[in-house]
Design a protein that fits this description.
The protein has strands at 25-26, 40-45, 57-63, 73-74. It has 75 residues and is mainly beta. It has one domain. Its main location: membrane.
Length: 75
């Protein structure tokens, strides 16, 4: 089968919030049945953007269960 990214390739995205919003739970979910599931998610935060590469604060690392259901993680 053809894959766009090899397993183990680091993938990331940035979510920008317009206002200061307290976030207490992260709920990552992938419902695409023809792609791989999440295994480990590392979350970083910062109060300003753009950010220098070393300006992110490591918030937590979440380990996902082998499941197609959404999983909630307390931050």
């Amino acid at each position: 089968s053809y894959m766009l990214n090899k397993c183990g390739v680091e993938k990331f995205f940035i979510v920008e919030l317009c206002d200061d919003i307290p976030v207490d739970t992260a709920v990552p979910a992938g419902f695409e049945f023809f792609s791989s599931m999440f295994h480990s998610i590392k979350m970083f935060v910062r109060d300003r953007y753009p950010i220098k590469r070393n300006g992110w604060k490591d918030l937590s690392t979440f380990k996902e269960r082998n499941s197609w259901q959404a999983q909630a993680f307390l931050i």
